Amino acid sequence: xxxxxxxxxxxxxxxSVSRHLAVLRRSGMVAAERRDNLTLHRLTHxxxxxxxxxx
Length: 55
Known about the structure:
The protein is an alpha+beta fold. The chain is built from 3 helices and 2 strands; from the N terminus they run H-H-E-E-H. Helix 1 crosses helix 2. It is globular and about 30 Å long. The two termini are 19 Å apart.
């Protein structure tokens, strides 16, 4: 998801979402991929494991 989409879904400001995502990226729980002028974020396997999600 993009920062805008996350912000909208969680009713948080863009800067707040950006700061949280930076922490999650550094911890290895979220990965970011640049597509054109958009950065998309997704959970990594570690992030899914921490949340208790399974395939």
